User: What shape does this take?
Amino acid sequence: MAETKPTATVKATSVQPKKSSNAISWIAPIVCIVAGYLIWRFILGSADGFKEPSSEGGFWPKHHKPKDALHGIYEGGIIVPLLIGMLLMVIVFSIERFLTIRKALGNGSIADFIRKVQYHLANRNVDAALSECDRQRGSVGNVMKAGLRRYKEMISEGGLSTDQKVIAIQKEVEEATALELPMLQKNLVFLSTITSVGTLVALLGTVLGMIRSFAALGDSGGSSDTSALAVGISEALYNTALGIGTSAVALIMYNIFTTKIDSITYGIDESGFTLTQSFASQYK
Assistant: This one.
């Protein structure tokens, strides 16, 4: 019988899943909607801001004749608190994504970091390349560091062919990438959703305002009940303005963050290519 050679096995990945809490994803929307109502009810709907305040109080006091434009937003109706809450959500998730992505970008230029690693690998100085990853401290550095650790192991591994070693390095990079990218894209769905839903909610408020306007006109028998007609039109216009403004801010922030994520993703892809090509060319 032909003698069979034992095959070396590649150790399991050393990459550990990131521990992250997703509590903000369900707490923040609730808090923002509640805060939106409180702003609408007690700041915009303060009785001191109206010439004819309602004495009933309750969930939705029927104040009339606001003294200024700020309190006039209150007349936009019950859809306004929802729109304010969505605007607060855009602010909260924009801050959260900014801090996360800023940390993921790491220190310095990603392109410069990759060039330094390429230089060290060309000189077969893997430890210096690992030190560069520690200084970079971003997502690209984390992926590169995971790949470099397996890269260093494969240099002294005698039981695998060069192709098998390259595949092992590539697998390590892919597994590290799979743990980094979800962290970058988390909660962006709120911004993309508000971009479209904000306009639809504003349209709902606009339609309700126009219904109120025509109902007031019908109740007056066609006569010029300008007060009730103006309230209905203002409800429509305030909802339109708030919804369009909220959607515009959400769209701008979403595009900014996706552009930043694309640059990180490109750096990660270049990192994997750098490691595999370097190993294949220097350790044949």
